[in-house]
Amino acid sequence: MTTFDGKVAVVTGAGSGIGRALAIGLARRGVLTAISDVNEEGLRSTAERIGAVGRKPHIQSLDVSDRRAFADYSSTVVEHYGVVHQLYNNAGIAGGAAPLLENDYETYEQIVNINLWGVINGTKEFLPHLIASGDGHLVNISSLNGLLAQASMSAYCTTKFAVRGFTESLRAEMLTEGHPVRVTVVHPGGIATNIATSALEDAERAGREITAAQRRRAAAYNEKLLKMSPVRAAEKILGGVAANHSRVVVGRDAKAVDLLTRLLPRAHAKLVHAWEKRVFD
Fold first, then answer.
1. Comparing C-alpha atoms, which of 81, 62, 78 is closest to residue 70?
2. Is 81 part of the annotated catalytic residue set?
3. CA 195, CA 218: separation in Å to the nearest integer?
4. Which residues are within 8 A (CB) of 74 and not within 5 positions of it... i.e. 6 or more apart?
5. Which of the chain's termini has less CB crowding within 10 Å, N or C?
6. Are 38 and 218 a contacting pair, CB within 8 Å?
7. Could you tell me the end-to-end alpha-carbon distance of the chain, in angstroms, rounded to an integer?
8. Residue 9's beta-bridge partner residues?
9. How far apart, in whole angstroms, are the C-alpha atoms of residue 244 and residue 3?
10. Would the pTM count as exceeding 0.85?
11. Who's near 254: CB < 8 A, 6+ residues apart?
């Protein structure tokens, strides 16, 4: 069992959604937290909620794609607490939905830099401290789309499949080298966060044209697919961490996808295509 009381945990992307719920859930379990996000307002709000349960977190604005900033951040957190036991690499973006031929290189670079390099940066900087703690646990948040690929989401799916592979490889390394670090990859399904709306807002700020189809798709996600509360998702994740599960699949939709891809490795793509036409069109 992984224990929580008195441990120190780092949570990225803690300004909203699953990251916020994880940080609060950890604090309720007696964990000292270091929380970060690019959204400083959201980060302060999370800190206030953690304060309401009697804990004072270490807070800092952080762009997880900035390798040097992450290195400085890890040093700051370790200096503050003296030790780090757990790392939750949660920060990520959707980046909008568009076919590859309509996407530019900048979009791919942004999504890869945050969703994949953010996880690599965090792991690289904090893993030595997790090992040194003698009782470490690394938790990387992938997605339902780390199990199943969908059309018009090639950048996002690429990163989430990569996070899955990166995490599973790292788990094998920890076992091979005998390091005292447990490793968990998480595949959440549709969680009621602002990820779909934020993707459109980020694209608009970047000056990219938003099509009617993209707006319909985002609306469909918000109205039909993003259903589970972040609090419930966080509880399932922390339950899986406590039980030392190597993989945590969150939500009936993610579990159904996991089963579908295993049972129908060749045919599931056509089934998903038919489902998308019904939902998004």
1. 62
2. no
3. 9
4. 84, 125, 126, 129
5. N
6. no
7. 46
8. 33, 86
9. 10
10. yes
11. 144, 147, 187, 188, 189
Residues 6+ apart with CB under 8 A from 237: 18, 22, 139, 186, 188, 248, 250
Q: What is the spatial order of strands in the sheet that 32-37 belongs to?
A: 58-61, 32-37, 8-11, 86-89, 136-141, 181-188, 247-250
SS3 127: helix
C-alpha distances in angstroms, 124 versus 7, 116, 191, 248? Answer: 20, 12, 28, 22
Q: Express each pLDDT in 219-237 by its tens digit.
A: 666 665 667 899 999 999 9
Q: Rounded to an integer, what distance in angstroms lies between the CA atom of residue 221 and that of residue 280?
A: 9
User: Among 50-59, 90-99, 104-113, 246-255, where is mean pLDDT lowest?
Assistant: 90-99
Helix %, strand %, coil % for the chain, to 5? Answer: 60, 15, 30
Instruction: Tell me what pLDDT residue 6 has.
Output: 97
- Which one is catalytic: 73, 88, 156, 221? 156
**What does the alpha-carbon distance between residue 194 and residue 275 come to, in Å, rounded to a whole number?**
23
- Please name the residue that has the structure tokens 């951040």: 73
Q: Cβ distance 185 to 163 under 8 Å?
A: yes
And the tokens for 33?
């937290």
Residue with tokens 């694209």: 203
Rounded distance between C-alpha atoms, residue 156 and residue 95, angstroms: 7
Q: What are 47's strand-pairing partners?
A: none
Specify the pLDDT at position 206: 63
Q: How many CB atoms lie within 10 A of CB 177?
A: 9
**Alpha carbon distance 224, 58 (integer Å):** 36
